[in-house]
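Entry type: protein chain
Record version: 2
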Amino acid sequence: MLKYYSKQFDVQITEAGKTVKKTFEVDKSVKTIYGVCILSNRDDLAYYRGSFRLEINKDEIYADGYSTKKIMSSENVEPNKRCFYIGKIVVGNGLITFEYTDSEDGRTVFAPYVVSLSVDGERESEI
C-alpha cells in the first residue's frame, strides 16, 4: 500500500549572481514524486532573482533557467494546493538534482537567503 510522502530540501544562497547545485537522495521507500514547489525565507528574493533546473532520476523536469515565479505560491493559496503537479515520476535511483541561480534584477538588493524545494509523492507503507 502506498502512503503520502513530503520532503523539503534546502539550499543556502550566500553570494549574488551564483548558481548552487545540490543533489539530494530520497528515502528508498519513495516510489513516485508527483508535486513540487519552491519556498524561501525571503520570498521576494527568490521570486524576483531566482531561476532553476530540476532533475529527478536523471530525467529533466524543468530546464535550466526556469523562473521560480512560475511555481511559487503565496500564503493566500490553500496549503494542500501549493505544489504543482508534474505527473507521477518514478524515483528510480532516488536522486533529485536541484540547480538554483540567483540573478540581479534591479528591484532587489541581495542578502543571503534559503531556497527550499518541496516535493510530494508516494512511498511504500511499512506494514
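Comment: The chain has a mean pLDDT of 92.
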